[in-house]
C-alpha cells in the first residue's frame, strides 16, 4: 500500500466534518485535505497533495507564523481570522484553528466559513421559532374555536326570532364572519389534526405534481422550469404533506409574480440537488435533499423578511399569512427546514430534508 493510501486511511474520519480541514507537514505542504475543502477549493485531493497551503491564504504570514510555532509545540492551538482564496471561486472569510499533532511534526488546520456559522445560527433560530409558533397557534386556535361556535349559534337563534329583514341581514353578517373565522382556525389546526402518513417519496414526482397544479391555475405568462438531479434517491416521508408544502411556496411565488405574468415573462424554477454534511438543529446529516423554488419576482418586502414564517404575516393584500408557516411545519415534520434568500428580481426558497 502506498504512503498516499496510508495517509488517506489515517485521516479518513476528517471527511465526515463539514468544516474545511487540512493536514500539513512541517514544511506547510498538504498531506491530506478533506472532502469539504476539496469542494470549496474546486481541486481534488491529488491536486492539493504536496502544495503549499499558504498559497490559498490571503495573509500567508499568519499561517507561516503558526506553523513555525507548531514545530516546537509552543501552543496547544492557535486561532485567527483570515481569507481563503479558492482558485476559481470568490474569496471566503474564515476562522482558522491550527493545532499541532503529536506525530511527525504534522499540523491540523480547521477553517470555519464565517457565513456558514451565521447560517447555522439562523437555522437554529428558525427551528426554535417554528416550535414556539406551533404551540402558540394551537393554543390560540383552541381559545378562538370554542366561543366562535357560541357566537354563531346565538346569531342563528336570534335570526329565528327576528321579523325584520334588515335586522336579519345583520345576523347573516355575524354568521358569515363566524364561518370565515372558523375556516381560518381549521387551517391553523390542520397540521396537528392529520397523522403523518409515511411512505416512499420521490421528490421529482412531488415537484411534477405541484408544477401541473400551478400551470393549470396560470396557463399563460408563467414558465415553470425544471432543473432536477435525477440521482436523488427516494426517502421516507408524507407525500401529501410535502406536495402541500411545495405547493404553498410555489403558489405564493406565482401570486407575487402577477405583474410579470401579465406581461408574459414570469419564471419559477424547481431545482433539486444533494447537499453533503448539512447541519440542521445542531444535528449533522451526511446527505440532504436540497429543493430550491426560485422566482424572478420583486422579492420579499424588507419589513417582513425576518418574519415571513410567522403565522398571519403577509406582504400581499388579501393574503392569509398561513401558506409559509404551514409549509415550514410540514417540512419540519420531516426533520427539515425552509430558508429564504431574497432580493429584487430573485427569491430563493430552499427546502432541506435529510436523506438516508
TrEMBL record:
Gene Ontology MF, one: ATP binding
Cited SUPFAM superfamilies: ATPase domain of HSP90 chaperone/DNA topoisomerase II/histidine kinase, Homodimeric domain of signal transducing histidine kinase, PYP-like sensor domain (PAS domain)
Keyword ATP-binding: yes
Gene3D superfamilies xrefs: 1.10.287.130, Histidine kinase-like ATPase, C-terminal domain (3.30.565.10), PAS domain (3.30.450.20)
The reaction(s) this protein catalyses: ATP + protein L-histidine = ADP + protein N-phospho-L-histidine
EC number assigned by the record: 2.7.13.3
Pfam family, one: HisKA
Enzyme class, UniProt record, top EC level: transferase
Keyword line: ATP-binding, Kinase, Nitrogen fixation, Nucleotide-binding, Phosphoprotein, Transferase, Two-component regulatory system
Domain Histidine kinase: 139-356
InterPro entries named in the record: HATPase_C_sf, HATPase_dom, His_kinase_dom, HisK_dim/P_dom, HisK_dim/P_sf, PAS, PAS-like_dom_sf, Sig_transdc_His_kin-like_C
NCBIfam families reported for this sequence: PRK11073.1 (NF008293)
Role this protein plays: Member of the two-component regulatory system NtrB/NtrC, which controls expression of the nitrogen-regulated (ntr) genes in response to nitrogen limitation. Under conditions of nitrogen limitation, NtrB autophosphorylates and transfers the phosphoryl group to NtrC. In the presence of nitrogen, acts as a phosphatase that dephosphorylates and inactivates NtrC.
Name of this protein: Sensory histidine kinase/phosphatase NtrB
